[in-house]
Structure formats: structure tokens, C-alpha cells
Request: fold
Amino acid sequence: MPHSQMTITHFIIEQQRRFGGSGNLSMLLNDVVTACKMISNQVNHGALVGALGSLDSENVQGETQKKLDVLSNEYFIDHTQYGGHLMAMASEEMDDIYPIPEEFPKGHYLLTFDPLDGSSNIDVNVSVGTIFSILRAPTGKIGVTKEDFLQPGTEQVCAGYALYGPSTMLVLTTGQGVFGFTLDQNVGEFLLTHPSMRIPEETSEFAINMSRSRFWEPPVRRYVEECVAGKEGPRASDFNMRWIASMVAEVHRILTRGGVFMYPIDDKIRDSGGKLRLLYEANPMSFIVEQAGGMSITGRERIMEMKPRSLHQRVPVILGSRTEVQRIADYHTES
Ligand code: AHM
Ligand code: MG
Reply:
């Protein structure tokens, strides 16, 4: 069967046969895929189904929730809780963990997710996405607590994102490379379109919110200034800049044509530790980026080796093409 015709379900089963593991992960992934298709459908219909706009509520991080944030969170819970593969889940949109209710069987995994990342882009019809990460649940333990989720990113069993852009794509890794699937809306299936995605090592494109430049630390300031100086500067090359304000779209661009994405620590967000959340944004994206040959750091350390301290912990994120991220790491060491 040609790659372009392989469905995501077929792919997951093949991977499991080649690399071992229980059938439970494939079944859990199938549920996650269904949730992403549901979210994709709502995002596509936008104003036609009254899905745009904000609610009066705020999430645990004090951010106003969009209708689609809450709806997407519900889709994820609805489609993954009954299958018997999960012990509990945690999401950007829920203050506390969500243990699988009494009436459903429990499984071996924990799921963390950001149901709709970049949701400030929804009302202006710019790409948004879903990010997820799967961890092993503790064995031989009755009940599940927040602490069970505080595992370093290196413990992830699987990570992925769905990008709701001009086409809907799902990109995932189980630690054997990165694979991209495109949703065929007529068939209702994700088909393998991007086998073995690799991030180009060299790049001349960077992504950062420049409006925060006055708060940056010296190493980030130095890196960006050198890029902006172009051919006449120390890099002797012209760089391009992009900022979509949607991490999923940003990471997808980097997987496709290389680049660096930065949401570094700065003076304004120093007390909160960063902008992006470790468990359901930084860790899954780092797993994907590393599996595609890239690098992902806070500036000072590898993100996936951090021992999480809390469910909604924020961290600085600098990820993308290996050579550039290594350069930024060196600038941090030198300063
Ligand atoms: P969200 O989870 O509340 O959507 O926030 C995360 C998003 C990322 O997708 C994106 O990189 C960043 O926030 C954009 O932030 P800013 O608006 O400061 O540029
Ligand atoms: Mg988010």
C-alpha cells in the first residue's frame, strides 16, 4: 500500500507490531484522533455554528476562555474517558486533574493536553491547534494524584499535535521518528502524507514576539540582533522573521522548512517562569522536535529533562533547528 494511502489507524497498528507494546496505546490514540477530528470540524465551521467568541470564565492561569477552548476540552474528555486506557487526564483548561470517573474502566496511561492552543487566533480565523502528551500511569497504586503527572518529558510515551490550518494535519511521535497525516475531509480519515519528518539543520528564519524585546535577557537580545543585522552583521546572512502567535503552526513550519521558535524568559514574565506550559505545551513539542532531529531548551537546560514541580508550570522555550538552538545555548553559557 503506498504511504499516501495509509490511514493513521493502520500506521499506529504497524508501529505497534514493529516496535512492540500493548494494543492499548493504539486504541487510546484512536480516541485522541477522534477528538481532534471533532475539534477540527467545530473550528472549520466557526461562526456558522456560533463557536466563536469568549465566555465570561477564566482558566486557572487567569486567561479568558474562548467558547472553543471549553468545547474542545469537552470533546477531549468525552472521547478519551470511556475507552478504559486512561487513569486520569490534565488540561490547560482544567484547574485540577480529571480522574477517570467511577463508571468507566481504568487504564495504564495519563493524558495531558492543550485542547486549543493559540486560541487568541480563533476569532481572526488564523491557524490554531491541539497539543497532547501521553505518560505511563503509576502501577500498583490505588487512585491517582497530581504528583503522578510530574514526570520529566523524557518519560513521554507519545506526543502529538493537530493543526487546524488550510488543511487539518496530525503530527505524532512515539519515539520512532515523526510522522504527519492530513485529514481527508471526504473520507473522514487522517492519511499519512509526511513520513519521517526531519527539521533542516541550518536555517535563516526565526520566530519571536518582538514587542517584548525590551524585556529580553542579553543572550536572546544578542541572537536576534545578529539575525536582524543580516548580511552586513556577524552572521553574514539575511534572516527572515515570522510570528503567528500559534505555537502549533510555528512548530509545524519549523518541521517543514526549519527555523527557530522562541518564547524565552523575560523580565515581565520572570515570576511566572515563562509563558508556555511544561506538561502540555513545551514537553510534547520538545519530544516531537528532538525526534525530528532538532533541539529544545529553556536557554539553560534541555526541556525534556526538567523535573516538573506543578501541573501548570510555565517554562521558557527555545526550539528548532539544531545548529541555531545550539548557538543560542552557547550564548546563554557565555553570558
Ligand atoms: P494559549 O495556550 O493561551 O493559546 O497560549 C499559548 C500561545 C502559543 O501558541 C503562542 O506561541 C503564544 O501563546 C503567543 O503569545 P503572544 O500572544 O504573547 O505572542
Ligand atoms: Mg496553549
